[in-house]
Amino acid sequence: MESIVLVIVLVAGLASGGFVGYYFRKLAAVREVNSAESKAEDLLKKAKERQTEILLEAKDKAIKVIDESKREAEERRQEVKQLQARVEKREATFDQKLLDLENKQQELYQKAEKVEKIKEEITAVREQQFVKLETIAGLTREEAKEVLLKNTEEKIKDELVLRVAKLEGQSSEELEIKAKQLLSTVIERCASSHAVETTTTAVTLPNDEMKGRIIGREGRNIKTIEQLTGVEIVVDETPQTILISGFSPIRRHLAKLALEKLISDGRIHPGRIEEAVDQAKKELATDIKKAGESANREAGLAGVDPRLVQILGRLKYRTSYGQNQLVHALEVTHLAAMLAEELGADVNITKKGALFHDIGKAVDHEVQGGHPEIGYDILKKFGMPEEVAYCALGHHEDTPKTLECMIVKVADAISGARVGARKDTFEDYIQRLTELEEVANSFAGVEKTYAIQAGREIRIFVQPDQVDDWQATKLARDIADKIQADLKYPGEIRVTVIREKRVIEYAR
Fold first, then answer.
1. Distance (Å, whole) CA 192 – CA 204
2. Which of 325, 257, 246 is closest to 291 using CA atoms?
3. SS3 state at 267
4. Strand partners, 453
5. How many CB atoms lie within 10 A of CB 307?
6. 253 with 271: CB under 8 angstroms?
7. SS3 for 243?
8. What is the distance, to the nearest Å, from the Cα of residue 82 to the centroid of all Cα atoms in its chain?
9. Of 70, 345, 470, 489, which one's alpha carbon is 20 to 30 angstroms from that of 378?
10. CA 399/CA 409 separation, integer angstroms
11. CA-CA distance, 392 to 360, in Å (whole number)?
């Protein structure tokens, strides 16, 4: 019995415990559900608040964008109004000017009409006067003119007879003398300009301060210019001017172009000087080509090889006894053309032969032989006819074989013999400087040579890979000995040997 009661009590306890556990578990579950719902509500509430903030920010930005757009639109509207006002003002001004022009034009038309009326009135009065005169004289206008001429002829007939007799009585000898005087005057008037720049060229500076910049620190700039161009730069007390001294016109012109570039650029240092000299060389080559083309056009020739024309342009920087050879060639061409027309020779052949008769002088310092032979070979090489090429070869012969060559010879003599055309002393001076350079260039290892200071100094640049310092010293002595033995010169000549080794590399 007790066991049954015990079992019942145990069962009852288990049931009540299970009920109590279920109740508390259910209570915990309800609490968890309530907590999740509250969290969800909080999240939803925060999301709505964030949404509200985003909408407000978007509205603020939209308002700012609208305000900015309105402001820009207003500014553009104002600009358009201003432009429109300016255009309207200009249109009004133009309309006023146009109206003024129309008024002036109308006034001019009215004045022109008045002038025409006055002219008509004057013409009518003049005709009336002529009619009255004809009536009074009893002669027409033509009859009166004949009577006047006849009376005048009767009065001066005796004077005309005496004048003709006086002219016929003059001797032929006097007429010949006058003809020679006239020819001399014509030749002098046909003469071209004399050689003005013989050994110096002036360069104008913007200010005297530029002289110091050209000289450079310790003279490095002026030394570089002299070494690269082979001239002497003379800086003296002459205001805003320096002189370029040298016997070669090409070297002087090259130095002048380089200096003008440096002065214009403002940067003057050895590196920039080399660039300026290179640019000047290119411009000089272009100038030589243009000079040849200009001379060919002035001579009126066609179908000439462009390479031959370029060689012709080199005569611009070549002189003979102080006479510029390109000017001389053109002068001979004009004289020869006139003579050929008078003598019935071939004018085209004569003009070509005259223009290129001294073409050999353009390269005679580079090619062995006399300029007539060199010129003949050059003309034959570039396809000139034998008649033209012979003018270069035969214009120094005593009796040329063709009439055209004889005409070229005569024209050449006239051009060279005119007053002031040539200067023997200058040519002798050039010859002495050329001989100095040739003596120095005859030694091995010499790269280039420049005679400067009117022949009182000669600068020799040697190749550093072939000549060392000791050999350079010995070379200076040998050149001085050879000059002393072979040449005649006043005073003394300074021999300067320059050995410079330059290494250039590029960092890339």
1. 26
2. 325
3. coil
4. none
5. 13
6. no
7. strand
8. 46
9. 345
10. 10
11. 8
Extract the residue ranges of the chain whose pLDDT is less than 50. Answer: 179, 182-183, 185-186, 189, 191, 193-197
Angle between helices 325-343 and 270-299 (to 10 degrees): 10
- Whether 419 contacts 410, CB under 8 Å: no
- For CA atoms 20, 22, 24, 26, the dihedral sign is negative
Q: Is 233 helix (H, G, I), strand (E, B) or coil?
A: strand
pLDDT of residue 197: 46
All residues at 6 or more sequence positions from 201 whose CB lies less than 8 Å from its CB, including other chains: 243, 244, 252, 253, 255, 256
| Residue showing tokens 């320059």 | 498
CATH superfamily ID and name for 304-422: Hypothetical protein af1432 (1.10.3210.10)
Contact 463, 445 (CB under 8 A): yes
Q: Which two tokens stand for residue 26?
A: 């259910």
Cα 79 to Cα 198: distance, rounded to the nearest angstrom = 67
- What pLDDT is attached to residue 355? 92
DSSP bridge pairs for 202: 243
Decide yes or no: CATH 3.30.300.20 for domain 430-499. yes
CA dihedral sign of residues 127, 130, 136, 140: negative
Contact 469, 448 (CB under 8 A): no
Q: What CATH homologous superfamily does 200-286 map to?
A: K Homology domain, type 1 (3.30.1370.10)
What pLDDT is attached to residue 420?
63
Token pair of 163 as six digits: 């004048």
What is the distance, to the nearest Å, from the Cα of residue 337 to the centroid of all Cα atoms in its chain?
Answer: 32
Report pLDDT digits (tens) over 240-272: 888 888 767 778 888 888 998 888 888 888 888
User: Given its phi and psi angles, is residue 5 left (phi above 0), alpha (psi -120 to 50 degrees) or beta?
Assistant: alpha
- 323 to each of 88, 247, 352, 427, 455, how far by Cα in Å? 68, 14, 20, 9, 21
Residue 23: both structure tokens together: 């109740």
